[in-house]
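Usage

Read records sequentially. Each one opens with the input sequence:
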Amino acid sequence: MMFTLIVVICCSCYVLLRWKKSASNGGKMFPYLIEENKRSSKPSSPTPLGRNSEEVNHRMGGSHVHNNIASRIQNSTSPPPSPPKSPTNKKVSNLRRDSIYDYKSEAAKKVELIAKNRDERRQRQADEKAQKDLIMHLEQNNPYWEFSQMIRDFRNGIDFRPLREHDPVVENQITVCVRKRPLNDKEDRRKEVDVITVNTKNQLIVHEPKHKVDLTKYLENQNFRFDYVFDDSCSNDIVYKFTAKPLVKTIFEGGMATCFAYGQTGSGKTHTMGGEFRGKQQNFRNGIYGLVAVDVFKLLNHQKYAQKNYMVSASFFEIYGKLVFDLLAKKQRLRVLEDGKQQVQVVGLTEKIVSKVEDVIDLIQKGSMERTSGQTSANSNSSRSHAVFQIILRKSGSKHVDGKFSLIDLAGNERGADTNKSNRQTRIEGADINKSLLALKECIRALGRKGAHLPFRGSKLTQVLRDSFIGEKSRTCMIALISPGNFSVDHSLNTLRYADRVKELIATDSPEDDAADVAMYGEEDISEDINEGDEEMLQDEERRLHISSMEWEVLESNRHVIESCVYFHKMACDLYKASQKNGFDKNHYATNWKNLLNEMIDIQKEALLKANEFCNVLDGRV
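and closes with the structure output:
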């Protein structure tokens, strides 16, 4: 301990002595450096300066140290006036630094630059995240706010000229229009974004949300053009004015008019055709069904047609798969046959004579309650059949049809990908619906080509509506309905492409399209709906539909046998009780018992034949 104290005292004394000596030499602790600086200022002795600088360099550890020390010495004294320095001396002076610790290599500078950029980037990302969090809070935690913002920015840059009630009506043989419905409560709860922009009266834009490989979000804007485009502010009255109303006078001029409502399940087809819903109650007066009936009776009483003594009747039936049911007769099954004149007849169809609008509304309400519905991925109460309401015009006392207006509420089209989780019945329904819709498109295409073969046997729907596609006075209107939510964008695009293809083929008469049609239908027979490569697939589809129809018939026969057995048991018991009484009529008993047995045997024989036929179909022998 004592030794350490002595060493510390000695060192302190040495430093104190060195400080006093440096004070006597001008405040410098290294006087020899002052001498070297004085000698270096003399121009007549360059050699000693070089030798001394080499010695200092060697002693202090390098040229950089020498430059730093020299600069310190130069700054400590005020040099006398001197001539301008040479470029070499100026370059050297720029390299001098105040301290050896101020020197940084190029690698260190790059590291500092990288660190600075990193900090700036992190700060920028933090600011962006804070901004996104603020927007998310303002958008009430909407996960699609980025798409919503992009769509909002896009709409701010375009000029809107939507369809209005005072716009002129253009009459065409085939009219294709699109109606966009508003977002419903379910879509609002899911924070869906409206991806449909109706910018003009005949154009719309679909903003399809997309993601790049690096998960960057962007929009793919697709444009479509039709005869009319109705936005979500248009009512049923406006839609009717531009679609079905111009067709009413067609049936008074001896023509056939047809109006379709086509679209995804839940897009508003029943709302447009049947009327607006108020809760679970439907107002059938403001639907296209009721509005057509109002105009029919107006024209019926017009002085131009009042003398022709027309009679108005109506029928309402549905097409479910390959089966036809009468909605005005408790869904009694109907048969569609061709008579000797090759006219398609719906055998057993109920046709009610109506004399006022209220009678038509009653028939529509009665038939709508009988319509087949089911649950799908898009709608819990989806219409699974095509509903056909027909207003028929005849002269009193005549069976000849002078005009017919067919109003069809088509079943909701489904994608195959959406039926993977559905049961077998729903998948069969979806296949039947899509097949009939494709056949309908082919018939409309044939009507637009004028003179081409009409492939009406492609489905029951087109077979029943065959007379609506024949003749120069036949006019058709298709209303494609779409949902605006981003969850339904794929369905909406499919619906728009379907409608766009129909209108595109009608509006174009170039030889190239005619050649394409010939190539599609075949050179020898243009009536073929498909090419040879799809023939096997069509046969499989027909077989599957035939099996489905046979299955329904067998099940119906089974139900009939059960009901007849209950009736047979009751009647047999009554006859037996009557036979136990004294003096019963033996002839009456025997006759009734024989008739009852024959009736039961006939019912069971018919059921047995259907069961055998169904077994043969399943075994592949038919």
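Summary fields computed downstream for this record:
- DSSP finds 19 helices and 18 strands in the chain.
- The chain has a mean pLDDT of 75.
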